[in-house]
Amino acid sequence: MAGIYLHIPFCPRRCSYCDFYSTTRLQDRERYVDALIGELALRQKECHERIRTVYLGGGSPSTLETPDLERLFDALLRYYDLEPDAEITIEANPDDLHLQRLKQWKQLPLNRLSVGIQSFDDGELQLLGRRHTAQAARNCIRQARQIGFENISIDLMYGLPSQHADTWNYSIGQALALHTQHISAYHLSYEAGTAMYRKRRQAIDEEQSVAYFLSLRHQLQAAGFEHYEISNFALPGYESRHNSAYWNGTPYLGIGAAAHSYDGNTRSWNVSDIDRYMQSIREGKRPFKSETLTMTDRYNETVMLSLRTAKGIDIQKIDKDKQASLLQKAQTFVQQGLLCQKNNFLILTEKGIFVSDSVIRDLME
What we know:
Elements: E1 3-8, H1 29-42, E2 51-58, H2 66-79, E3 82-92, H3 99-106, E4 112-118, H4 122-128, H5 134-147, E5 152-158, H6 165-177, E6 182-187, H7 206-222, E7 226-229, E8 232-234, H8 241-247, E9 252-255, E10 260-262, E11 266-270, H9 274-282, E12 288-292, H10 295-306, E13 313-314, H11 320-335, E14 339-342, E15 345-348, H12 350-353, H13 356-363
Parallel strand pairs: 1-2, 1-9, 2-3, 3-4, 4-5, 5-6
Antiparallel strand pairs: 6-8, 7-8, 10-11, 11-12, 13-15, 14-15
């Protein structure tokens, strides 16, 4: 296991677009951290190598108090062998990143911040149900840099109802002006059951979405960013090592309610219920389900995950009996200008990025 993911499901309130597993029961944070520590202890024998990355995601991990984070890191260092230069990321909301908290975090092993800004337009932030303002977002990034955090990622979102090109380009410009090292950009998904789902009829059309993404891609590339994964851009050397491990098929432990794990052959996932999760861990049991991947499953995952990256599919890593079929299917997309073949790699072109789902689906078995 080269990486550990810890799921922190707590949010002061749910954003209008979110369908991830989360809860507003902030009063349960300390008991939940106890359970995380219990699961870390319970599963330490599953890990036979040094940990290269740790990622605290959610939810809103920045809602945890500093003493709870200290307890988590004490447990990580007690039960696992971390690389001296391990990448340790925490997702954070701008309104949680006040100066005192940033100073406290700088004393922890944390060395990478992933800040959920989403937009630098206050109207769009209100539409999304975010708690912060654009000014608060700018302030927290500047303060984090002043405190000494040198690896900062921010999230942006496009495809919002009634979004305009001028506000989108303004958000891109603001992100670049803050001199962060990594930018993730996601198209808003209208998930059934969310408050945003009811506004889907106001969503921008596909042609506008493509134009917004091209504008983002070209502006970031001109600023020296590499488009290393469909939704992710980084200055050289600042790619997310943790997320890159997912796309490379590297095994990892998922700790916490609803967290997923992968050991190279089996995928497993913890129950999406903090009460059942905490009770089971107290009883010394991990509440999970699992599935063993077939050869076809593993082939399909390799195609799906690899093709999302700028490196593409390493044909030599595909089983010999499947290589000919893959290359035959790929030729159609090469002729259409959606794929290109460089040495032993199949890579999406800029044109292919916009139809990546259909290309991936057709290359699967």
